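RECORD TYPE: inverse folding
INPUT: structure tokens
STRUCTURE:
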């Protein structure tokens, strides 16, 4: 198991109410759960997160996993697409374990693969998607996340108030 996966697992809530699915951890060593990625900064901003953002995220039953277990953002389109397709079954297995009440797909391009994994895992829940917050999409991501956050199941109303202000 990679160091990233060990860190990710340390933030897994006892009960996952909402699963966020990204494409993969980025190449270059940044990672959401290390609090040093663009996705982390944009998610924290959307949730009006404080210094305890990751703890609040976890206590609300939120968890971030990735479709592909290795970085794909620097790969050629064909290789990236192939890895996305190859990762559907493994994501389906994790979805069957997680049993989320909602799924937020954090990149429009991976929606078909995540939906295939949901079908394969017999997961029927609300799903949402956002553009990935790369250059030029940060505001679109933020606005879409604000809209989605209001609809997400959380563990207790008090957590929702803390996270969404």
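DESIGNED SEQUENCE:
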């Amino acid at each position: 198991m990679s160091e990233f996966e060990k860190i990710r697992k340390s933030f897994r809530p006892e009960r996952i109410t909402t699963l966020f699915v990204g494409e993969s951890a980025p190449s270059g060593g940044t990672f959401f759960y290390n609090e040093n990625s663009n996705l982390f900064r944009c998610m924290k901003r959307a949730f009006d997160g404080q210094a305890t953002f990751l703890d609040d995220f976890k206590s609300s039953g939120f968890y971030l996993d990735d479709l592909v277990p290795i970085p794909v953002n620097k790969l050629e389109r064909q290789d990236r697409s192939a890895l996305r397709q190859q990762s559907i079954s493994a994501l389906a297995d994790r979805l069957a374990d997680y049993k989320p009440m909602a799924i937020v797909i954090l990149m429009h391009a991976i929606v078909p693969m995540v939906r295939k994994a949901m079908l394969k895992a017999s997961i029927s829940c609300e799903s949402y998607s956002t553009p990935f917050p790369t250059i030029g999409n940060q505001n679109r991501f933020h606005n879409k996340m604000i809209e989605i956050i209001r609809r997400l199941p959380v563990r207790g109303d008090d957590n929702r108030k803390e996270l969404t202000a």
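NOTES: Confidence is low (pLDDT under 50) at residues 157-165.
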